[in-house]
Design goal:
CATH architecture: 3-Layer(aba) Sandwich
Strand order of the largest sheet: 5-4-3-6-7-9-8-10
Number of strands: 10
Shape: globular
Radius of gyration: 16 Å
CATH topology: Rossmann fold
CATH superfamily: Vaccinia Virus protein VP39
Helix content: 25-40%
Strand content: 25-35%
Distance between the termini: 24 Å
Structural class: alpha/beta
CATH class: Alpha Beta
Number of domains: 1
Low-confidence stretches: 201-210
Number of helices: 5
Largest sheet: 8 strands, mixed
């Protein structure tokens, strides 16, 4: 059973797609958010991007904790329907003011193309926190390219935090240039890395456990 861990929607149940996704466990989600809040403070007024959203649990956890805007991107149509139901359960029933939560149906690369175009026209937002939890079959080079594109297009705020989840057995994850590694930790079959956008220069090699 998946639930919202904390915030205004604490305890509310989330539906999970029956196939095709891999929800981050409540334990791992609680640890990740605790770690993020120790770095950046509360999520109040944060702008959040949840790529490969699955059930939407990460983005909706951020909404529950005070994020003002959350964009969820998912390619599986069945998962999109589950996310929309979860948005109704978590956001529509929450006290005012509601966070703005948008569900984007389609691939991450398709969404990213539109977001880069919007950035070029000056109509895009800059995200404070990005969750990137792709299928484990997605190559690390593809994930790094997505993250680099976000930074290069100006879609990440100064000091934005990025969380990447990969298989625990994966050993080939390295942050691309422009990201400073902060923390990493294993939770069962999952391994999560946290980094901050750097103002310039190569990413830091210092890593602390979550």
């Amino acid at each position: 059973m998946t639930r919202i861990v904390a915030g205004r929607a604490r305890g509310r149940r989330l539906s999970v797609p029956s196939t095709g996704t891999r929800p981050t466990s409540d334990r791992a989600r609680e640890a990740v958010f605790s770690s993020l809040e120790s770095i950046r403070g509360p999520f109040v007024n944060a702008v959040v991007l949840d790529l490969y959203a699955g059930s939407g649990a990460l983005g909706l956890e951020a909404a529950s904790r005070g994020a003002v805007r959350v964009d969820l991107v998912e390619s599986d149509r069945r998962a999109v329907r589950v996310i929309e139901d979860n948005v109704s359960a978590v956001v529509d029933g929450s006290p005012d003011p509601h966070p703005v939560v948008s569900v984007h149906s389609g691939s991450v690369h398709r969404w990213l193309t539109r977001a880069v175009a919007a950035a070029g026209s000056g109509t895009a937002v800059a995200y404070d926190v990005v969750f990137c939890d792709p299928p484990y079959s997605t190559s690390s080079s593809d994930v790094a390219e997505v993250i680099s594109t976000l930074r290069e297009a100006g879609l990440l705020a100064d000091g934005a935090l990025v969380v990447v989840e990969r298989a625990h057995r994966a050993s080939d994850w390295h942050w691309p240039a422009g990201f400073g590694a902060l923390r990493d930790s294993a939770y069962g079959e999952a391994h999560l890395w946290v980094a901050a956008v750097e103002a310039g220069g190569p990413p830091s090699d210092s890593v602390a456990p979550c």
